[in-house]
Amino acid sequence: MEFSKTESIDSGLKFKTISNLMVETTGITEHLEEADLYVHEVKVLEGPGEGNTYLHNLDSAEQI
User: Fold this and answer.
1) Distance CA 40, CA 58 (A)
2) Burial class (CB in 10 A: 0-12, 13-18, 19+), 23
3) How many CB atoms neighbour CB 63 within 10 A?
4) Confidence (pTM)
5) What is the sign, positive or negative, of the torsion defined by CA atoms of 44, 48, 49, 54?
6) Which of 8, 10, 12, 41 could disulfide-link to 28, CB 3.0 to 4.6 Å?
7) Res 48: pLDDT
């Protein structure tokens, strides 16, 4: 699935990032006009930065 083309995303979806962080979607999405793609806010579930949120291009993450 191309998450970078998805205008919205459900909260609570879990992903493993390239750097092996376990994250969960919050349901917040932003459109980056310069790159014409959508990024989705995720919350780090465990490990370094636990509890922090950031915007992520989920196309590079593995849904679990």
Assistant:
1) 7
2) buried
3) 11
4) 0.89
5) negative
6) 41
7) 85
